[in-house]
Amino acid sequence: MDAGLRDNTGAETAMRFLYNFKDWIVANTSGVVLIQIRDRVEEDWGTATNNSSLADFFVKPLESMQHNWFNLQDFYQSGQWQFLHSDTTFRLQRLVFQYAPVQQHAKAALSFHLTTAEKKDITASLQQPANHQAFQAYKTLQR
């Protein structure tokens, strides 16, 4: 088991840090901008699957749980974010940049040695509307 099983994006760790140091943040800063860079977009819960055999009846729930693990983390962290945002008195802004592949079921390359095609795919992902909005929000915060 690795740390990603509970908090794959590091968001929970960042929120705990902010909550623990909230008094110091109020006294010493004008607020916090939390920038989250994700290697996948937040997704829907998926579609229902057909259980065509007795084995599928037992295996599909586990397979579905594995497939939706990131969605469970997103759901939990969304609630944690709302709690943190409502319980703190300092300015708190979260900007989320997401990798959205050009091909629908492609995954982000997790390597420091990217191919030319992977670099182009990442660059194209930066032009997605959600990322464009995050860039605009960042520019506004800099003023």
Report on the architecture of this protein.
This protein has 143 residues and is mainly α. The protein has one domain. 55% of the residues lie in helices and 10% in strands. The chain contains 7 helices and 2 strands, in the order αααβααβαα. The chain has a two-stranded parallel sheet with strand order 1-2. The longest helix has 19 residues, at 69-87. It starts with a helix and ends with a helix. The model has no long low-confidence stretch (mean pLDDT 82).
Radius of gyration: 19 Å
Major sheet: arrangement of strands: 1-2
What ranges have pLDDT less than 50 throughout 5 or more consecutive residues? Answer: none
- The ordered string of helix (H) and strand (E) elements is HHHEHHEHH
Biggest beta-sheet profile = 2 strands, parallel
Number of E-type strands: 2
| Terminus-to-terminus distance | 43 Å
Share of residues in helices: 40-55%
Mean pLDDT over all positions: 82
Structural class determined from secondary elements: mainly alpha
% residues in beta strands = 5-15%
* Total domain units: 1
